[in-house]
């Protein structure tokens, strides 16, 4: 993938940062987007250069379409072309994390503006810079798009559902140009939104997945997701488009109506007992 150019939103941290570094390792030049943390963005750029590639940082608030437009114009001026667009930016949890009976319209708008609307604008602005073989990726959370149990996720879950729908529509729209459009759905992943949740919530989630909700017995890492992203960006992935690719260690295969110990055929380790109902109610 040498001599290719990528724009990755939200690349100053977590999964976006990991994808930026993985692509740089393959020789891709990277425009690393950030919103507020310029220091982290510059650190990512320094790591990109350590891997033998180059790029630049670009600031934008992806909830504002005019800033997305200007960001991609900057990419056009700097690179002259764009081969890879990865939409990974997200707002901070307090900006959208509220149950459906309490979520404010501002929180709802933040979720949709940062996801579905931002993706719509970014793709339409980026396409004039893209050549045959272009790759467009969106980061989603498909479980949250089709379930309703994690109540405060309603804004983001609904926005991600709209984002996944856009992936399919865009995939058809640009297929004749040889450009693919896909989404990656990570399971719970370290160094991501998980780490912004209350400590009690993080502990419950980690223990639950280690006990077997993720059949591989652990949470994901940014590298797990990077491996999927780099393969979808490769030339050999040109026949895959309009798909939501689950990268969750098998967590989406589990049956929520059956205890994990029955599903995986192993007793629960004593060091990770099932959370007491009272504790679950307390957190809820």
Task: Itemize the secondary structure elements and their pairings.
Blueprint: E1 5-8, H1 14-25, E2 29-34, H2 38-50, E3 55-59, H3 65-79, E4 82-87, H4 105-126, E5 130-139, H5 142-146, H6 154-174, E6 180-186, H7 199-213, H8 222-233, E7 244-247, H9 260-264, H10 277-283
Parallel strand pairs: 1-2, 1-4, 2-3, 4-5, 5-6, 6-7
Helix pairs in contact: 1-2, 1-8, 3-4, 4-6
Short description:
It is built from ten helices and seven strands. With 284 residues, the chain is α/β, with parallel strands linked by helices.
Key attributes of the depicted protein:
45% helix; alpha/beta; 284 residues; Rossmann fold
By CATH, the architecture is named 3-Layer(aba) Sandwich
On the 0 to 100 scale, the average pLDDT is 90
General form: globular
The CATH homologous superfamily name equals NAD(P)-binding Rossmann-like Domain
User: Radius of gyration in whole Å, from Cα?
Assistant: 19 Å
CATH topology: Rossmann fold
Proportion of beta-strand residues = 5-15%
The SS-based structural class is: alpha/beta
Which quaternary structure do these chains form?
Answer: single chain
Enumerate the spans where pLDDT stays under 50 for 5 or more consecutive residues.
271-284
Number of domains: 1
CATH class: Alpha Beta
Description of the molecule:
The protein has about 280 residues and is an alpha/beta fold. It contains ten helices and seven strands. Strands 3-2-1-4-5-6-7 form a seven-stranded parallel sheet, sandwiched between helices. α4 (about 105-125) links the parallel β4 (about 80-85) and β5. α1 (about 15-25) packs across α8 (about 220-235) and α4 packs parallel to α6.
């Amino acid at each position: 993938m040498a001599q290719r150019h990528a724009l990755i939103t939200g690349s100053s941290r977590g999964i976006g940062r990991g994808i930026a570094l993985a692509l740089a390792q393959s020789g891709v030049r990277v425009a690393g987007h950030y919103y507020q943390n310029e220091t982290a963005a510059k650190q990512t750029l320094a790591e990109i250069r350590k891997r033998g590639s180059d790029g630049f940082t670009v600031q934008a608030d992806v909830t504002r379409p005019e800033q997305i437009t200007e960001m991609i114009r900057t990419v056009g001026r700097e690179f002259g072309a764009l081969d890879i667009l990865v939409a990974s930016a997200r707002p901070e949890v307090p900006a959208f994390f509220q149950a459906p009976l309490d979520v404010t319209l501002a929180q709802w708008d933040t979720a949709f503006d940062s996801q579905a609307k931002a993706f719509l604008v970014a793709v339409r602005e980026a396409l004039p810079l893209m050549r045959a073989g272009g790759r467009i990726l969106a980061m989603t959370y498909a479980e949250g798009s089709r379930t309703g149990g994690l109540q405060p996720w309603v804004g983001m879950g609904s926005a991600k559902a709209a984002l996944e729908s856009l992936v399919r529509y865009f995939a058809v729209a640009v297929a004749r140009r040889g450009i693919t459009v896909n989404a990656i759905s990570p399971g719970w992943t370290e160094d991501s939104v998980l780490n912004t949740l209350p400590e009690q919530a993080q502990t419950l989630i980690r223990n639950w997945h280690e006990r077997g909700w993720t059949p591989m017995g652990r949470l994901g890492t940014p590298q797990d997701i990077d491996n999927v992203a780099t393969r979808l960006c490769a030339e050999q992935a040109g026949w895959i488009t309009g798909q939501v690719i689950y990268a969750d260690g098998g967590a989406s295969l589990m049956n929520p109506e059956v205890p994990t110990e029955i599903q995986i055929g192993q007793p629960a380790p004593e060091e990770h007992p099932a959370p007491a109902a009272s504790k679950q109610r307390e957190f809820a």
